[in-house]
Write a structure and sequence with these properties.
Length: about 325
């Protein structure tokens, strides 16, 4: 086996994309070499990195990333490919297997098998790009602690918000209210199962209370990435209700009013982050169980409808510009290889 010349997407400065040539060596012991099939742009965290809205000194949190948040950086974490070479002492993977990996956008790469997840044979491999987002949405629902029949609000109907709304319905929510200003995403949310879709604004809390017999929702989830939406989520929950802050705001400031309803209503605000499990679940759940659940959900959720645009990796700059512009028709952008 010899090295393969490949291309990888790098951010060289805020909103500046470059394709760099790299040599991918043969796999060593315990490694596999992969040819990418598809990878998805994260419209939340990845776009913060693209725009330079992440603290420069922050440590990289995945072994597949390269560079630094202060630029240049090779970033991305939703890649699907097929195994083309197998190193010595590799078990559980063979040439031709479809795998998911938390890897940046790149034609070919080598990874240890510990970083690869073999996708179910019956699954369309292209849908595997949603693994990371489904895992995030599942963690959000676990953090929310929803009880059967309760009302839930999801602020933001990007990909993670749309997945979270689907999972809340599967978890037994009696009412799922989505909040989304984009008319096309709002219509998609309705089609995928939200009972009601509202626009953000000054009347939101009153509208939510009208829908919930004056109580407010039991659980509100903020996954829009808009700092102002966290206050809206707090305002919409019932007394003793819970708010899950699932957005990462990067360097964007967040201003909250924590008197009134928040204080007297004993509202709980909790962060959700996919890197950790809800502590109250750890006697029964671990990352292996969560991964197995996500792989099953990839075949049960409505995912294909979320892909709105496909680009070759050679058009990476155009793809990021489209997402950054916030075009109404954009839901999930995918690179095809």
């Amino acid at each position: 086996m010899s090295a393969i010349e490949t291309q990888a997407v790098w951010f060289c400065a805020p909103r500046t994309v470059e394709l760099r040539n790299e040599a991918v060596p043969p796999p060593e012991s315990g490694q596999i070499r992969v040819a990418a099939c598809a990878s998805a742009i994260s419209h939340g965290t990845e776009m913060l990195v693209y725009r330079g809205q992440v603290p420069e000194g922050m440590a990289l949190d995945l072994p597949t990333l390269a560079g630094a948040y202060g630029f240049p950086i090779k970033y991305g974490y939703a890649c699907v490919g097929r195994v083309i070479d197998v190193g010595a002492e590799v078990a559980g993977f063979t040439v031709g297997d479809a795998i998911f990996c938390l890897h940046p956008h790149q034609n070919h790469f080598v990874i240890p098998t510990s970083l690869a997840l073999r996708l179910p044979e019956a699954l369309d491999p292209a849908l595997g790009v949603f693994y990371a987002n489904v895992e995030t949405a599942l963690g959000i629902v676990h953090d929310a602690g929803l009880r059967f029949g309760e009302a839930a609000l999801v602020c933001g109907q990007g990909v993670v918000g749309l997945l979270t709304a689907q999972l809340l319905r599967m978890a037994g929510a009696g009412l799922v209210i989505a909040v989304e200003p984009n008319p096309q995403r709002a219509e998609l949310a309705r089609r995928l199962g939200a009972d009601v879709v509202l626009a953000p604004g000054a009347e939101l809390a009153d509208q939510v209370r009208e829908l919930t017999a004056g109580r407010g929702v039991d659980v509100a989830i903020e996954v829009s990435g808009a700092p102002a939406a966290l206050q809206s989520a707090i305002d919409c929950v019932a007394v003793e209700g819970s708010v899950v802050a699932a957005s990462w705001y990067g360097t964007k400031p967040v201003s909250l009013e924590l008197g009134g309803h928040f204080h007297r209503g004993r509202v709980r605000v909790r962060s959700a982050q996919v890197g950790r499990l809800a502590p109250e679940l750890t006697p029964r759940w671990d990352t292996a169980r969560r991964s197995a659940t996500v792989l099953r959900l990839l075949g049960e959720l409505r995912l294909a409808e979320l892909v709105s645009q496909r680009f070759p990796i050679s058009a990476a700059a155009e793809a990021y510009n489209l997402v950054d512009a916030g075009a109404a028709e954009v839901v999930q952008v995918v690179f095809e290889y």
